Each structure stands twice: as C-alpha cells, then as structure tokens.
Hints:
About 80% of the residues lie in helices and about 0% in strands. It is mainly α and about 190 residues long.
Amino acid sequence: MHIGGGQCNLGDNAVFERTYKTYYAALRFFATKYVGDDESEDIIESLFLRLWKQKKVLTNETHLKAFLYQATRNACLDFIKTQGRIHKRHSVWLDQCEEVEQDYLHDLIHTEVLAELYRAIQHLPSQCKHVMQLGFVEGLTNEEIAQSLDLSVQTVKNHKVRALRMLKKQFAGSVSGLLFIHLFLS
C-alpha cells in the first residue's frame, strides 16, 4: 500500500496486513452504527476474508478506502435484510402456530360440547329424541323430519321446542349451556 497514490494489491501479504491493521477498527466502528457491536465484528472479519480470497488490486489508497467503506455498508445492509427475512419468517411461523393452537382449542371445545349434547339428546323422550337426531345430528329440515316420522310439520316443530326447553334446562348455568345455545342460534 502506497500512501502517495500507487496501487494497493491486497494479494500481497504485507499490503493486506497493513490494510487490515489500518482500517479494521474504523470499519468495525462504522459497521456498529448499522448492526450493533457483536454483528459488526463478524461482518468485518468476513469482509477481510473475502478481500484476501479475491486478492483485489485497487488503483490507490483513496480508492481502497472508498471501496472498504462501501463494502462494509453493503455487507451491513445485506445482514439487516437477511435478519429482516428471518424475523418475518419467524413471526409468520409464530402467527401460524398461534392460529393452529386457537383452531385446535376451538375444535376441541366444539367437539366436547357436541358430544355432551348428543349424550343429552339420548335421554330425551322418544319422539323428541328422534326429531332432534334427525334435525340436529343429520341436518334434515322440518319437512323432511315430518315425512320421515310420518308426522305433521307442526308436530315436528312442537317436539323441537319441547326438546330445546329440556336441553336448555339441563344445561342451564353451565358453560356448555352457553355454547349449546350458541350452536342452536347460529
């Protein structure tokens, strides 16, 4: 390295060592402004390792200095961009895990309430039980239930109302009761 304006051949051991000793601390301080102290050390070490492998030849010391600062800045920006992508992927993953967990809990609660409701339907009087099984469990309309059980539509509606009253009474005051009411209202 020549201060007076000659070429800077970083493939030359003496030039490379002098460049390292001259610029390492300043480049590390410069990088710290972008990425913090711990990361700046790794970035500058990697930069000098790349320079050593490339054996760059620069026209003069001014060119070398400008090149080193620009390379440091670019390395810091690449690091920030990479960390941003990692953070974004991690954040998306956490959101998905939270969503899966919420779905799992929702499905678990929903399934348990339905199981409790099915058990309760089994203890209803015979006609109410059949109407509720066909309507609630199998999803038939009042007309289809009436046709299936050879009843009038109004009789089916009466059995449903009676069954719902009994079920509401059975579930009154419980969390299952609130969910039960929600299931039938939605």
